[in-house]
Amino acid sequence: MRFIWTQELPSTQVWLADYIRKNDLESICIVATKNQTNGIGSRANTWDKVSCGLYLSCAMPIALLPQDLPRQSSSIYFGQILLELFREFHNDLWLKWPNDFYLQDDKVGGLITQYIKGFVIFGVGLNIFSEEKSSLLTGKMQNNLSQKDSIESISTEILSQIIKKILHFLSFNIVEFALQKNIDTTLHGITCNAFLQNNMTWYEVFNRYKQSFSKNHRFYTHINEDGITHKVSLQDALLQNDGSIVLHDKILYSLR
User: Fold this and answer.
1) What SS3 string covers the chain?
2) Could you count the other beta carbons within 10 Å of the beta carbon of residue 164?
3) Are residues 74 and 162 part of one domain?
4) 4 close to 32: Cβ distance less than 8 angstroms
5) What is the pLDDT of residues 29-84, one digit of tens each?
6) How many Cβ atoms from other residues are within 10 Å of residue 107's Cβ?
7) Domain housing 220
8) CA-CA distances (angstroms) from residue 99 to 8, 73, 112?
9) What Rg do the C-alpha atoms of the chain give, in angstroms?
10) Does 86 share its domain with 194?
11) Dihedrals φ, ψ of 214, to 5°?
């Protein structure tokens, strides 16, 4: 597996997608940065820069995905797995259908997925600290910091821990590294067969996700019909076993 950490990048998702199109990638590749200048979000929106954020994209062979995963619900699958990692830093985080991380009522992050040349790419953006936007270090967690604690140092430490947890999920370990330095290294981990054995099925992940789905009923989502984007309420949304929802007699899928 190749792991790339850089101080700044226009977009981890765009960089990795372009790299796959131009090169013969053979295994997992992760690119991450703490400063993204032109990030993308759902519906081709931009992802706003914050004081400290996680911007990471990971490409993995489709063969590593669980066989029961509905491809159109990949964002829910990876989103729920990452949510459980992020909850170690704030218990009030939850995953809004289909791909947004919320801290109670406020969005603090999001995730998108793409399929390119036999690979799936999931890209995540997470606000760790911001003075203007909701973030992981918001409210109770931020207020509990003592005066001697530096927001910058705490944010950097959390960023480092999150990256290591994501690498651990992918069954790779990395020695201590300094976020102040660029990294481009190949990590040696377990075999693909072992990864598949340790990986969670869609059924397992979906059962965890649906436990908090009712929180969606107070919110809205955007759907595209005939090239026009509409904002619709999720109040009456019914979650289906493949990750889609039924809303006003229509079946809606996450295509993000």
Assistant:
1) CEEEEECCECCHHHHHHHHHHHCCCCCCEEEEECCECCEECHHHCEECCCCEEEEEEEEEEHHHCCCCCCHHHHHHHHHHHHHHHHCCCCCCEEEECCCEEEECCEEEEEEEEEEECCEEEEEEEEEEECCCCCCCCCCHHHHCCCCCCCHHHHHHHHHHHHHHHHHHHCCCCCCCCCCCCCEEEECCCCCHHHHHHHCCCHHHHHHHHHHHHHHHHHCEEEEEECCEEEEEECCCCEECCCCCEEECCEEECCCC
2) 17
3) yes
4) yes
5) 999 998 888 876 554 555 556 778 899 999 999 998 999 999 999 999 999 999 99
6) 15
7) 213-252
8) 24, 9, 7
9) 18
10) yes
11) -60, -20
Whether 241 and 168 share a structural domain: no
Record the tokens describing residue 45, joined without a space.
């929106």
Answer yes or no: do 43 and 151 share one domain: yes
- Contact at 8 Å (CB) between 150 and 46? no
pTM value? Answer: 0.88
Q: What is the Cα 144 distance to its own chain's centre?
A: 26
